[in-house]
Amino acid sequence: MFKKVLVANRGEIASRVIRTCKKLKIPTVSIYSEADKEAPHVDMADESFLVGGPRVNESYLNIKRIIEVAKETGADAVHPGYGLLSENTTFANRCQKEGVTFIGPSTEIISLMGSKISARQAMEKAGVPVVPGITRPLKNEKEAIIVANDIGYPVMLKASAGGGGIGMQIVRSDEELKKAFEGNQKRATDFFGNGEMFIEKYVENPRHIEIQVLADNEGNTVYLWERECSIQRRHQKVVEEAPSLFLDEETRKKMGEAAVTAAKSIGYSNAGTIEFLIDSDKNFYFLEMNTRLQVEHPVTEEITHLDLVEEQLKIASGELLTFAQEDVKRQGHAIEVRIYAEDPVKFFPSPGKITKLVTPKGPKVRNEMAVNGVSTVTPYYDPMIAKLIATGETRKEAIEVMKEALSSYVVEGIKTNIPALQKIVEHEAFLEGDTTTDFITKYLK
Ligand code: MV4
User: Fold this and answer.
1) What is the pLDDT of residues 38-66, one digit of tens each?
2) What are the chain's domains?
3) Per-residue CA distances from 417 to 163, 207, 372, 414, 424 (Å)
4) Which H, E and C letters describe 206-245, residue by residue?
């Protein structure tokens, strides 16, 4: 196991990773920016280092400075968390070069899955279902029109380097495609420095269901069931839960096995998530693979009773999985919501000083705090205050626990999205599991 782990992140995930390192008695190093001097992850670590100014590219993305801190402190591993440098191959390569283990898959796998086109190619080769479409970059708008007519409208125009819906557009005719192609290609080039575009058949009214996998360095791979992440707003997940009410046992097994096939086919190691789109007939299709721990990983931990960060650390330090697929538990139900400092009507970030903070407690409530009690939510980063996870023996019980927890969450001094979250978990459609990706537009507009 590692001598010392540098946590190259901030907010709730930094604190969460440090908590598991403490459990394993691994000394930790945290990094922080000028704006995060009072943040919880600073004091939680055994050592903490200022790495730069408030803006992420001066601090949390400051690869040179972070590597320096790793070397100065003798950290022999770096946990990148999610976002920030967690899928940055330059950083992963720099760690490797300095003999510091990057806790995640190889850089080759990060870049293979970082391109949606190369990911699709790998999945087609592995026999994992992908959405019907083209699996190479479109030369130009003219070719796009030919391909779209082959597939049949409506189609989804996508950027290979895309994420969060950027460079993606539903297109229903040649005219729409003519208008959409260049604009999305430009946005993808501006945002990601890569304008490669491709087209898929549009999957009507899908659900977004993702499978968590764990693979050790010898290729032993298990799936840790699914997470239902369909309730999204502008491609930001709002509510995540495990297991999904929509899946029957047969589909659950097929999706889990497809995820394991996907991971094994590329020689995956560590924790990863395969995202699928699934239609109302339960046909599922590979969407993308995330090569990092995800925000919503706690709902999987709660139903499997596994600590995914502990599993990541063990795998990265060369240990083999100590359990097989048949040993993976699936007990109870877990629901996660993200508490944001944002205006509940306009959904704008609403940073500022929290003057009172009372968090819900209880045996079935898990709170992953991004801020210290009464503190200031800065405008520099994602305005997440906390992740609230509620569990129960049944989904109904978990929803009751969530409703109670949300109603006893007190955050004064700034606006939060708690009222909007309450509307979702109290809605009849949510109770019934009618949670497709248009839930918010359909029920909460
Ligand atoms: C799709 C799709 C339907 N058909 N692809 C891809 C990125 C992810 N954030 C959303 N993605 C989707 N890709 C095909 N071929 C539906 C989604 C989708 C979605 C699309 C628009 C608005 C909200 C959405 C929420 C989840 C999934």
Assistant:
1) 999 999 999 999 999 999 999 999 999 99
2) 5-103 (3.40.50.20), 132-201 (3.30.1490.20), 207-443 (3.30.470.20)
3) 23, 23, 19, 10, 11
4) CEEEEEEEEECCCCCEEEEEEEECCCEECCEECEEEECCC
Residue 411: Cβ-neighbour burial (10 angstroms; 0-12, 13-18, 19+) = buried
Residue nearest to atom 26 of ligand 1 (CA): 437
Instruction: Give the span between the Cα atoms of 44 and 372, in whole angstroms.
Output: 11
At 137, give phi and psi (nearest 5°).
-65, 140
State yes or no: pLDDT of 347 exceeds 90.
Answer: no
Tell which atom from ligand 1 comes closest to the C-alpha of 229.
26
Amino acid at 344: P
Report, as an integer, the average pLDDT of 225-253.
96
- Amino acid (1-letter code) at residue 116: K
* Six token digits for residue 43: 């004091």
- The closest of 69, 13, 21 to 45, measured between CA atoms, is 21
Catalytic residues: 292
Contact (CB, 8 A) for 28 and 45: yes
Spatial distance between the Cα atoms of 317 and 2, rounded to a whole number of angstroms: 7
Ligand 1 site residues, Cβ closer than 6 angstroms: 131, 156, 165, 168, 200-203, 206, 208, 232, 235, 277, 287, 437
Looking at residue 278, its pLDDT comes to 97
The rounded Å distance from CA 229 to ligand 1 centre is 11
pTM above 0.90, yes or no: yes
Pocket test for ligand 1, best of 117, 151, 156 (most atoms within 8 A of CB): 156
Q: How confident is the model at residue 220 (pLDDT cuts 50, 70, 90)?
A: very high
d(C-alpha 386, C-alpha 368), whole Å: 5
How far apart, in Å, are the Cα atoms of 67 and each of 74, 91, 253? 10, 9, 41
**pLDDT per residue over 276-319, tens digit each?**
999 999 999 999 999 999 999 999 999 999 999 999 999 999 99
The residue whose two tokens read 């190619």 is 121
From its phi and psi, is residue 429 left (phi > 0), alpha (psi between -120 and 50) or beta?
alpha
As a whole number of angstroms, the distance between CA 228 and CA 435 comes to 9
